[in-house]
């Protein structure tokens, strides 16, 4: 037995070196290069590399995405995920609840900050605070393009990968809607409705865009126009009327009321609301004018409020579902794969289904 109380014939040097490598990490958040690990453990670069390779293959350490640095893997610690979210609508709140539930399921440490719609300073402050918390990955949900550019730069400087939800951010992995496709689906539904219910006649289509959605909205609008004009030959392109960008239910109501007044009572009007909120406002205006039989609305989102109106059987006929309740597991599964160093696609889409009164119970109990 030597002076340290170790019996040499029982002591396994290789096992000790493996433990030296694992114990060289001073914290759960620390990431180290091979050179730094070799220096701290007294190993040669070659020996450190071979041990790290073995530990990585067995799931004890991982390489940070896109970098030659290592940190302890989930077998040794919880990932710290920063989540900057929106909570101003029911859809946002459903996404947040799904993220929290998935974090508990996967054993992740989710650190949440709440963004405010179109509030640049708040979004930047939240990102800075989360990065200061030594997170492993940032999940960002906010609308502002300028904020997205600046947050991308902060993540790059900190060496932190990021995922953007529903609104693309430079350098970030994307999870959310396939916005061109959701526009196509809404246009196809409205065209089929006019063919089936109005003998192919539609005098106008009012598009209700949402304020601040920029490229997301342009993609939805392009898909809507393409499919609507293809499926409804009688509709003149000039009769696809794009309203001023709005945000609230009340604004959607005012814009729709104005169109209905201009169109006259004997017109058949399709309404493509690029958010469900605007569709709910449009329905109020239609009911107010007693034109339920001459108007049909398709929304975007498929949230609880929209589903209730579709089930009620009024002019709100359909909504393209994004399945907000499934975002948590999808986004955090993607985050884990990124942090494990797996090769993942830059863009991942949620599923989309056009929810109608006929199929609603196939996807939701209520």
Radius of gyration: 26 Å
Q: Strand order of the main beta sheet, please?
A: 4-3-5-6-7-13
- CATH architecture tag of the largest domain: 3-Layer(aba) Sandwich
Task: Please give the oligomerization state of what you see.
Answer: single chain
Helix amount, in percent?
Answer: 40-55%
What sequence of helices (H) and strands (E) makes up the elements?
HHHEEEHEHEHEEHEHEHEHEHEHEEH
- Give the C-level CATH assignment of the largest domain: Alpha Beta
Beta-strand percent range: 15-25%
Distance between the termini: 72 Å
Strand segment tally: 14
**Named CATH topology of the largest domain:** Rossmann fold
Mean pLDDT: 90
Structural class by sheet pairing and helices? alpha/beta
The CATH homologous superfamily of the largest domain is named Response regulator
Which overall shape is indicated by the principal axes computed on the Cα atoms?
elongated
Low-pLDDT stretches: none
* Count of DSSP-assigned helices: 13
Estimate nothing, just give the exact number of structural domains: 3
The largest β sheet comes out as: 6 strands, parallel
Kindly list the characteristics that best describe this protein:
366 residues; alpha/beta; 14 strands; Rossmann fold; elongated; six-stranded parallel beta sheet; single chain; six-stranded mixed beta sheet
């Amino acid at each position: 037995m030597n002076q340290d109380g170790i019996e040499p014939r029982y002591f396994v040097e290789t096992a000790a070196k493996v433990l030296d490598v694992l114990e060289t990490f001073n914290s759960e958040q620390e990431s180290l290069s091979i050179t730094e690990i070799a220096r701290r453990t007294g190993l040669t670069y070659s020996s450190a590399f071979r041990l790290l390779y073995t530990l990585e293959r067995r799931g004890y350490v991982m390489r940070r995405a896109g970098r030659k640095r290592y940190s302890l893997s989930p077998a040794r610690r919880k990932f710290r995920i920063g989540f900057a979210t929106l909570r101003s609508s029911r859809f946002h709140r459903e996404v947040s609840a799904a993220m929290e539930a998935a974090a508990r399921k996967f054993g992740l440490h989710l650190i949440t900050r709440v963004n405010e719609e179109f509030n640049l300073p708040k979004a930047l402050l939240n990102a800075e605070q989360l990065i200061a918390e030594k997170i492993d990955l940032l999940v960002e949900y906010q609308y502002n393009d300028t904020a997205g550019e600046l947050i991308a730069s902060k993540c790059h400087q900190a060496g932190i990968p990021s995922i953007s939800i529903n609104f693309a951010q430079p350098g970030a992995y994307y999870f959310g809607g396939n916005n061109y496709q959701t526009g196509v689906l809404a246009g196809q539904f409205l065209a089929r409705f006019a063919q089936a219910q109005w003998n192919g006649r539609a005098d106008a289509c009012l598009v209700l865009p949402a304020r601040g959605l920029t490229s997301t909205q342009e993609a939805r609008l392009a898909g809507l126009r393409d499919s609507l004009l293809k499926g409804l030959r009688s509709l003149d392109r000039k009769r696809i009327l794009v309203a001023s960008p709005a945000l609230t239910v009340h604004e959607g109501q005012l814009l729709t009321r104005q169109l209905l007044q201009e169109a006259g009572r004997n017109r058949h009007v399709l309404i493509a609301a690029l958010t469900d909120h605007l569709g709910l406002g449009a329905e109020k205006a239609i009911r107010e004018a007693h034109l339920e039989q001459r108007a049909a609305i398709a929304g975007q989102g498929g949230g609880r409020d929209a589903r209730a109106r579709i089930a009620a059987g009024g002019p709100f006929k359909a909504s393209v579902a994004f399945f907000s309740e499934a975002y948590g597991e999808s986004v955090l599964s993607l985050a884990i794969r990124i942090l494990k160093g797996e090769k993942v696609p830059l863009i991942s889409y949620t599923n989309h289904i056009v929810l109608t009164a006929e199929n609603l119970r196939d996807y939701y109990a209520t």
